[in-house]
Automatic annotation (TrEMBL):
Record-given protein name: Kinesin-associated protein 3
One cellular component term from this protein's GO annotations in UniProt: axoneme
Signal peptide coordinates: none
Stored Pfam families: KAP
Record-linked InterPro entries: ARM-like, ARM-type_fold, Armadillo, KAP3
Coiled coil: none
Molecular function per GO: kinesin binding
Each ARM repeat, start to end: 582-622
GO biological process: cilium organization; microtubule-based movement
C-alpha cells in the first residue's frame, strides 16, 4: 500500500506561513513564529497527504549592545531572514530597541532553571530527535563514543519540547542509566553528561518519578561521596610534594602536579554541580530528602563549602538553606561546624552567594548553640560592618538581633561599630515608620550597661527622648526604659527628663505608652532626685492610688504603679505621704487579689520594706495594718526572692516591736523544727489510737496553750520517752 502511494505521489508542495514576532525572554534574541504546511500531490494534482507543523526560529543578536545602530541592525535582520516580511521592519526596530534597553534579570531567583553549559558539551554536529536510535548505539561503544552519544542526547534533552518524546524511549534512558551505573568512574565527562540529561528531567516535578525509577539520586549520592574522597587524596598528594620547596626537582614536580590538579578540580566541580543540583530538585519531596539525610547529605554539603568555585558554592549553600528548616538537618550542621565555614564566605563579592549565605545563617541563628558558634566565628564584627549595605543590611540586622537575644553576647556589641550605625539609622527615620527589626535590636542592646553608655553618648538620649515623647512611640520608650535601669552615669542623665515623663501620666494616653513611661520613672532610684516635689507638681499620688485597685487597669500597668510606689518610698517624706493617703491598705488588698503572682507579691513586699525603714511609716505598718501577719505567712514562700525581701522586712519589724518579734521567732521555730514538733504531737497518742489526756502525775498532757510554751518538752523528751508504757527500749519516738 505504501509502495502504491509512493508511486502515485508526483509532487510535494511546501507552504510557509509567517507568524508573530517577539523577543526572547532571557537572551538577546528575536523569536520568529511560523507555520509549515506540507502537502503531497497526486498525479492529477490533487492533495493526497497533508501535514501542518508550528515552528519557531531564534535569531540571536550577539553584536547587540548599548552602542549598536538599531536601524541598520533591523534592516540587516529583515534582509537575511526570509521569514520576516519587509513590512515588519518598524516592528523589528521596536523589538531591538526594547532588547537594547532591557535590564538584566534580577537576583530574586538564586539558581537558574538550567545549569550553564560546561566544557565538553560542544559538538560539531546538530542533534536530531529522529536520530536518537543512532545515539543510543554509541552508548555500547568505547568511552569516547559513549561520551559523544550522551552529549548528543543531552543536546536534545536541553530542549524541554523533546523531553516527552525522550520519556517514551525507555531504551535510551535505560542505556544511559546503565552506562552511568557501570562506567562512571572511568570518565568524569561521561558521568557529568549523563547526569546532566537526567537533571533536565528533574527540573520538572512530573518527571521526578522517572529519575527515581532509574535510581539516579542514589547514584549521585555515591558519586558525590567518592569525589569528595578523591579531593582529599589530591590535597594530601600536593602537600607531600610541597615538603621541600628549595629542591628544584621537587618544585617542578609540585608545579606539574598543581597544574594537573587544577584541571581535575575544574572537571570535578562541574560533576558536583550537576549532581547536587539534581539532588536539590529531587529534594522537593520530603521523603526523598529524608533518604538523603540518612545518607549524610549534610556532611557532604558542609565538606564542599571548602571549595572556591562560586557557582558551586551558591548551589551548596542553597541546598543547605533548604535543609536547615528541619531540626535533624540543623543539628547535623551544628555537629559539622558549618557556621565556621560559612563565615568565610561573608568576605566574597559574589552577590548571590553572599545573599544565600546570609539567609542560611538567619535560619541557623534561631538555635542557641549555633548562635554561640557564630559569635566564636567573629560574625558580630563581620555583620556589623555590613549593616550599611542596602541589599544585605536587613538580613545582617536580623541575624544580629537573634544574637542579641542572648545576654552572654550583648556586651560584645559595644566594641564594634554596630551601635553607632544603628543610632544613625534610627535618627534617619525621622518621624516616618521605623522597621521593627531595627528598634527591636536596639531594645535588646539597651538592656546591657556598656551598650547603654555608648547609646547615650553625645545627644543619643536627648534624640531618643525627643522622638519618643513627640510621637508617643511605645517601642522607643521601651528602649529608653531599658537604658534607665543601669546604675551609674547613665541613670543620672535622666534627671532632666523626669518632669516630661511624669507629665505623661494621664487617662488620655495609651496604656502601653504609659506603662513604659511609668517603668522608666520607677527605675530612677537616684538619691538626689526630689520625688516629693515631683509627686506634688504632677499630682501623682491620686493617680497611683486609683490604679492600685484590682481590675482598674491591665496587670502590667498596676505592677508598674506598685514598683513606682516602691521607688518613691525610698524618700522619707514621700513614704509618709503615701501612708497618709491610704495606699498601704490598698496594697494589702492588692496582695490578697494577686497572691498567686510572684512578681506582684515580691514588689508589694518590697514597698512594705521601704515603708518600715522610715520611722514615720513604721508604726502605721505595724499597728494599723495586717501587714506583719501577711509577711509572717510569706516567710517560707517557695520563691527565694520573696523570702529574702520578706525576712529583711520582718527583721526590721522585730527590732521595733516585741510582740511581733515573739510571733516571728515562734513561726521560725515552728518552721525549722517542724519534724520534731510533728513527732512530739504524735507522742500524745496511745497504741490504741486514743490520746493520752493526762500525764503520770494526773495533769493534763496537752495544754490549751501553745505547745511551744512547754519548756520541759525541749529538754526531757528522752526521759519521758523511756517511761512510756509498752515501748521497747531504744525504740524511735
Amino acid at each position: 500500500m505504501d509502495k502504491l502511494q509512493a508511486e502515485d505521489a508526483r509532487y510535494l508542495k511546501r507552504k510557509v506561513k509567517r507568524g508573530s514576532l517577539d523577543v526572547h525572554p532571557t537572551e538577546k534574541a528575536l523569536v520568529v513564529q511560523y507555520e509549515v504546511e506540507a502537502t503531497i500531490l497526486g498525479e492529477m494534482g490533487d492533495p493526497m497527504v497533508g501535514e501542518r507543523k508550528e515552528c519557531q526560529k531564534i535569531i540571536r543578536l550577539k553584536s547587540l549592545n548599548a552602542n549598536t545602530d538599531i536601524t541598520t541592525l533591523a534592516r540587516r535582520v529583515v534582509e537575511e531572514c526570509r521569514l520576516i516580511h519587509p513590512s515588519k521592519l518598524p516592528e523589528v526596530e521596536q523589538l531591538l530597541f526594547y532588547l537594547q534597553n532591557r535590564k538584566k534579570p534580577g537576583n530574586e531567583k538564586h539558581l537558574p532553571r538550567d545549569l550553564t553549559p560546561f566544557e565538553g558539551m560542544e559538538l560539531d554536529e546538530e542533534a536530531n530527535i529522529n536520530c536518537i536510535d543512532d545515539y543510543v548505539e554509541l552508548l555500547y561503544e568505547d568511552i569516547p563514543e559513549k561520551v559523544r552519544g550522551a552529549t548528543l542526547i543531552l543536546h536534545l534533552a536541553c530542549n524541554p519540547d523533546n523531553l516527552e518524546e525522550l520519556l517514551q524511549n525507555e531504551t535510551a534512558l535505560g542505556a544511559l542509566a546503565r552506562v552511568l551505573r557501570e562506567d562512571w568512574k572511568q570518565s568524569v565527562d561521561m558521568a557529568t553528561t549523563i547526569i546532566y540529561v537526567f537533571f533536565c528531567f528533574s527540573s520538572f516535578s512530573q518527571f521526578h518519578g522517572l529519575v527515581t525509577h532509574y535510581k539516579i539520586g542514589a547514584l549521585c549520592m555515591n558519586i558525590t561521596e567518592h569525589e569528595l574522597k578523591r579531593y582529599d587524596l589530591w590535597q594530601d598528594e600536593l602537600q607531600k610534594k610541597q615538603k621541600d620547596p628549595d629542591n628544584q626537582n621537587v618544585k617542578k614536580e609540585h608545579e606539574k602536579a598543581l597544574k594537573k590538579y587544577q584541571g581535575l578540580l575544574s572537571k570535578q566541580e562541574q560533576l558536583l554541580r550537576v549532581a547536587l543540583y539534581l539532588l536539590l530538585n529531587l529534594a522537593e519531596d520530603t521523603r526523598t530528602e529524608l533518604k538523603m539525610r540518612n545518607k549524610n547529605i549534610v556532611h557532604m554539603l558542609v565538606k564542599t563549602l571548602d571549595r572556591e568555585d562560586e557557582e558551586l558554592l551558591v548551589l551548596v549553600v542553597s541546598f543547605l538553606k533548604k535543609l536547615s528548616i528541619f531540626l535533624e538537618n540543623k543539628n547535623d550542621m551544628a555537629e559539622t561546624h558549618a557556621v565556621e565555614k560559612l563565615a568565610r564566605l561573608l568576605a566574597c563579592e559574589h552577590e548571590n552567594l553572599l545573599n544565600t549565605t546570609l539567609r542560611l545563617l538567619l535560619n541557623l541563628s534561631f538555635d542557641t548553640g549555633l548562635r554561640s558558634q557564630m559569635v566564636q566565628a567573629g560574625l558580630i564584627h563581620k555583620l556589623s560592618l555590613m549593616l550599611a549595605d542596602e541589599k544585605q543590611g536587613q538580613l545582617c540586622m536580623c541575624i544580629l538581633y537573634h544574637i542579641s537575644v542572648d545576654d552572654r553576647f550583648k556586651s560584645m556589641f559595644a566594641y564594634t561599630d554596630c551601635i553607632p550605625q544603628l543610632m544613625k539609622m534610627l535618627f534617619e527615620c525621622g518621624e516616618s515608620h521605623m522597621e521593627p527589626e531595627l528598634i527591636s535590636f536596639c531594645i535588646n542592646l539597651a538592656a546591657n550597661k556598656r551598650n547603654a553608655q555608648v547609646i547615650c553618648e553625645g545627644n543619643g538620649l536627648k534624640m531618643l527622648m525627643k522622638r519618643g515623647l513627640k510621637l508617643k512611640d511605645v517601642l522607643i520608650m521601651k528602649m529608653i526604659r531599658n537604658l534607665s535601669q543601669h546604675d551609674g552615669p547613665t541613670k543620672n542623665l535622666f534627671i532632666d527628663y523626669v518632669g516630661d515623663l511624669a507629665a505623661q501620666m494621664g487617662a488620655e494616653e495609651r496604656e502601653e505608652y504609659v506603662i513604659e513611661c511609668l517603668g522608666t520613672l520607677a527605675n530612677l532610684t537616684i538619691p538626689d532626685l526630689d520625688w516629693e516635689l515631683v509627686l506634688k507638681e504632677y499630682n501623682l499620688v491620686p493617680y497611683l492610688k486609683d490604679h492600685l485597685k484590682p481590675g482598674s487597669a491591665e496587670d502590667d500597668l498596676i505592677l508598674e504603679v506598685v514598683i513606682m510606689i516602691g521607688t518613691v518610698s525610698m524618700d522619707d517624706s514621700c513614704a509618709a505621704t503615701m501612708a497618709k493617703s491610704g495606699i498601704i491598705p490598698a496594697l494589702i488588698e492588692l496582695l490578697n487579689a494577686q497572691q498567686e503572682d510572684d512578681e506582684f507579691v515580691c514588689q508589694i513586699v518590697y514597698v512594705l520594706y521601704q515603708m518600715v525603714v522610715h520611722q514615720a511609716t513604721r508604726d502605721v505598718i505595724i499597728k494599723d495594718t495586717q501587714a506583719p501577719a501577711y509577711l509572717i505567712d510569706l516567710m517560707h514562700d517557695k520563691n527565694a526572692e520573696i523570702r529574702k525581701v520578706c525576712n529583711n522586712t520582718l527583721d526590721i519589724i522585730a527590732e521595733y516591736d516585741n510582740e511581733c518579734e515573739r510571733k516571728i521567732q515562734s513561726e521560725k521555730f515552728r518552721w525549722h523544727n517542724s519534724q520534731w514538733l510533728e513527732m512530739v504531737e504524735n507522742r500524745a497518742m496511745g497504741d490504741d489510737g486514743e490520746p493520752f489526756m493526762f500525764g503520770d502525775d494526773g495533769e493534763a498532757f496537752m495544754h490549751n496553750g501553745d505547745i511551744l510554751e512547754r519548756p520541759d518538752l525541749f529538754y526531757t523528751a528522752g526521759i519521758h520517752g523511756g517511761r512510756e508504757a509498752g515501748r521497747e527500749p531504744g525504740s524511735r519516738l
